[in-house]
Every structure is written in structure tokens, then in C-alpha cells.
Specification:
It comes from Methanofollis formosanus. Its cofactor is Mg(2+). Pfam families: KARI_C (PF01450), KARI_N (PF07991). With about 325 residues, the protein is α/β, with parallel strands linked by helices. The protein is built from 16 helices and nine strands. Strands 1-9-8-7-6-5-2-3-4 form a nine-stranded mixed β-sheet. Strand 5, helix 4 and strand 6 form a beta-alpha-beta unit. The structure holds NADPH dihydro-nicotinamide-adenine-dinucleotide phosphate, the ligand CC[C@](O)(C(C)=O)C(=O)O and magnesium ion (2 copies). NADPH dihydro-nicotinamide-adenine-dinucleotide phosphate (NDP) binds next to helix 1, helix 2, helix 4 and strand 7.
Length: about 325
Amino acid sequence: MVEKYYDADADLGVLAGKRIAVIGYGSQGRGQALNLRDSGLDVIVGVRPGKSWEKAIKDGIEVFQVADAVKQADVVQVLLPDEDQARTYLEAIRPGLSAGKTLMFSHGFNIHYGQIVPPPDVNVVMVAPKGPGHLVRRLYEEGAGVPALIAIEQDASGDARAVALAYAKGIGATRAAVFETSFREETETDLFGEQAVLCGGCSALIKAGFETLVANGYAPEMAYLEVCHELKLIVDLIYEGGLTTMREVVSNTARYGDLTRGPRVIGPETYAAMQEVLEEIQDGRFAKEWILENQVNRPVFSALTRADEEHDLEVVGAEIRALMPQFKK
Ligand SMILES: NC(=O)C1=CN([C@@H]2O[C@H](COP(=O)(O)OP(=O)(O)OC[C@H]3O[C@@H](n4cnc5c(N)ncnc54)[C@H](OP(=O)(O)O)[C@@H]3O)[C@@H](O)[C@H]2O)C=CC1
Ligand SMILES: CC[C@](O)(C(C)=O)C(=O)O
Ligand SMILES: [Mg+2]
Ligand SMILES: [Mg+2]
């Protein structure tokens, strides 16, 4: 059974008198830094001058260049994009690390695939929220928390787990639950989840449903409302009580269609594709492809992103959301 931790298992006092540098102030950086500050911890941000730098100042957080933040910190949480971490680590993080400091990540990509190799005398840990950064912040403000994973890769100081748990408490994760894993397991399951189900699988399923309805002469607006807008409402039910709760709430007609047609849509071919996607993650092929893609300025990433941004689903979706007051910013 996986080890689980809650508020009572974590002591914020472990971080008393310690300075935390959150490197990067994007989705996770902002959410985590603000929660740590509101939990009474000493937190600074390390980032380059630009949009994020200005945002941190506006939020009232002290900001430094990455190297300067690392030098003065006891705990360094690396929340840069995965593809930028190795270069910034060599240039600005590695020089400021010394014995007993804690190097932290929210995703294991660079450690697991050997892009960052820390010195043996620092702690290397992970505190990885299982949710987007803006929810890490929003749920904390509501008195709740996003669950997180912790992992200990190197325990140089002997208290690496206590440091990781205190940090997890600081961002509000122990209010929900914190599960212990390894860098390998987090990296492989996270990549698989986002590729096969959460982002990749879900986007492909929505596009396939939308395109099928439109190709058969139905109005794009009807197709969007059915396969995209309503999806959130159904996923909320699954989030709250699993497939069982969702099936209790939808009509019996929907439930019968779900049970008999769903497995025809996601059949043996999808299982085989998922297995292939997982194996590419496990043997490093996906990591190599993504690292090389970045070295040539991301041509595939840019072309595919543009094509999907121009897809009718996105055009119609934007028009429909503009008609509903709840989507007005
Ligand atoms: N997004 C999420 O919700 C989740 C992310 N993670 C992990 O968290 C980590 C951070 O991801 P995410 O929050 O999405 O990242 P974002 O892209 O949202 O933010 C990255 C931040 O790093 C800054 N940055 C980028 N390059 C540099 C550089 N060379 N020097 C200094 N600062 C730089 C950016 O600033 P600027 O404005 O200057 O570009 C920005 O503040 C990743 O490891 C990711 O896998 C884990 C769980 C969920
Ligand atoms: C699902 C995408 C994610 O893994 C996340 C928000 O957890 C990410 O890398 O952003
Ligand atoms: Mg994830
Ligand atoms: Mg991820």
C-alpha cells in the first residue's frame, strides 16, 4: 500500500528559519509561492526579468535573478518549464547549491531521464501537486488543497522526507492527502496520464466526436455543446464520486448507451496504442523526442498547436462561450 500523509504528519517547523526559493513564477510557481507565503514561510522567487517577474512583484513577493535566489535559499523548488530546466540548472542553479540544501521538483522528467545530475551532498526531493497551479492556489484560499505526490531521490541531510512533507503542508497538499512515490513512477505515470488520457486522449476524443457529428450534417454549435461543454459537467460528477455517481445522475438511457457503446469506441486498438505510448515513455523515446524537438525550436509543437487553435471546434467554442455571461472575464 502506498504511504499517505496528512496535516498531522507534517511539521511546518522543519522549515522555520529556512528560506525557500521558488524558481519560476508560472502556473505552479505562482500557486506554490503564494500558498507558502500565506502559510507563514520565508519564500522568495527566482525568475528572469519579464512578465513573471512583474507579476511576482505585484503579488508582493521578493524577486531575484535565478542564481541570486538559489544562493540565499535552503530549499530550491525548480518550477521552470521541463524543457528549460537542464540549461538553467547548469548556468544558475548548480553554482549556488551546497551541502545540506534541498533541490526540489514538481515533476521528475529531468532527474529520471538524466538531464540534471545533482551533487551527492544535496537532498533531491519531489513535491508534485496532482492538479494545475491555479487550482493549487484557489483550493488553498478556500481552505482545502490539491493532493500531491512526494518522492525522495537523495537524502543527504537525513531529514529530506520531513522537508518535503513540510513543503507539502505549506502549499496546502496535506489538507487533501500526500502520497509517496518514486521519481520514476511519478514521471512515467504523469507523462502517460497527460498523453493518453487527460490532455491527449481527451482532446482527440472530443475532436473525433465533434468531427463525426459535423460530418453528418449536425450544427457545429450542437456538436460543441454536446461533446465539449457538457463534458465538464460529466467529469465533475466523476471527480466527486467516480463512475458510479456519474451513472446514478445521468438517465438510464445514457447509462445503457455508456455501458454498451463506450467499450466499442475505446476498444482493443486504443489499448494497444496506450501500451505503445507507455513503452515510449518507459524506454526514453518520448523524452529524447521532446528534448530534440526543443533543440530545433519546436517546429512540430508549433505546427500542431496552430492547426488545433484554428480547428472549427475552437472557433465555435469561443463563439458559444462569448454568449454565456459565466465565461465573461
Ligand atoms: N502546469 C501545471 O499545473 C503543472 C506543472 N508541473 C510541473 O511544474 C513545473 C513548472 O511547470 P509550469 O508551472 O507549467 O511552467 P510555466 O510554463 O507555467 O512557468 C514557467 C516559469 O518559468 C519561467 N522561466 C522560463 N524560462 C526561464 C528561464 N530561462 N529563466 C528564468 N525563468 C524562466 C517563466 O517566466 P517567463 O514569464 O519569464 O517566461 C515562468 O515564470 C514543470 O516541471 C511541470 O512539469 C507539475 C504539475 C502540474
Ligand atoms: C495534466 C497535465 C500536467 O501533468 C498536470 C497539470 O498535472 C502538466 O504537466 O501540466
Ligand atoms: Mg500531472
Ligand atoms: Mg505533467
